[in-house]
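Field reference: sequence -> structure
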Amino acid sequence: MRLSTFGPLSRRGLLGLVAGGSAAMALSACGGSGETADNSHGGTTYNGPKVDLDFWNGFTGGDGPVMLKLVKRFNSEHDNIKVKMTTYKWETYNEKVPAAVKSGKAPEVGIMHIDELATAAARGVILPLDDVADALHLAKKDFAAPVWDAGVYQKKRYGIPLDMHPLGMYYNKKVLDSAGLDADKPPSNADDYADALHALKKHKIKGMWMTPFPFTGSQTFQSLLWQFNGDILTSDNTRPDFAGDGGVKALTWMVDVVKDGYSPKNIGQDADAVAFQNDKTAFNWNGIWNINTFAGVKGLDWGVAPLPQIGDRKAAWSNSHNFVLLKQLSPDTNKQAASKVFVNWISRKSVEWAKSGQIPARTSVRESKAFAALKEQSILATQIKDLHFAPSLAGIGDVMPYIETAVNEAVLLKKKPSDALSDAAGKAAKVLKENREKYG
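Structure field:
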């Protein structure tokens, strides 16, 4: 699990979570001397004096070179704006961001995972973006609705979404063929999925390796929780809801996959993905970021599909990178204006970013021919209306480890699903109460 300044999250946070911010555009015009930018173009162009912008992120994997290429292209097209991109490992990054804000050395532009926005906002690390969205003429219609709505905390917007990275179902065509299953028609509902697992078991194949670890285990549980009409918290975000009927059904399904012999017991971290790559299992519920990983495995014959509907409705876990504004001790109006241009430009060019294993949040980009050419990303994009994000609540990261522990204990057959979830909910309720006192 990654170390986070804003609270512990799942291992995916280590791979994909970033924090940071662009200039303090939402502040009143104070600071910044001399010539100022002409803002008459609504933030789409910058006509002021040359400025240097710092852009921090944690894209240390294969996504890093993709973003750096975009930054270099932006610089080549804007003579009066120079963006310097600095990348840190996530655990280091999340320690540096609040310290940089406090010391007055925060970068102008950055990215933050959507489930960190509320906590960072409550701690005064980032600023509201409603004025920025207005200046760029950005509205809900311009983005996928779930990710746009998830960027609001206490009726204020704190993120401009760049992408979505949901969970999907990867399927190994070679393994399905060996069990006499149609490798071009992966199961899409509970009955078909159960039939496929049963057929694979007859051929002595463990069809789905059920991980007990936070990375995909917790994301699988959350997806099923929403499919069974449950939620992480109650609608007012004051009490845990994951231990209710929906949560018990979700975790029981996961445990039954192990008990019924469709999955090995006690598998290690990432063993599910490794088994998939080595033709040892047919299905792997994993994130969109694995598209490029599996594409790079020589001889692997695979496909990807939306998560099958196991519960009462379609649903899938997702997260999202968002542009944010870091609080500046001395706001510079020129940098504020230039930062708007950079954010807007990257958002419009996000089809290139999608190649790193993402779904563009911006509708116009997602509906382009260039994105349609990205076969696997386009397939997972069909889930957009069914995507769910963590609650917009300050300190939500403090709650998630208890869910992860419950999943771990149940999948390892150490506790009954209902007991594991009940114990976790009791501890989470105390944390929620403490956080209400801490954040208000």
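Note: The longest strand covers residues 163-172.
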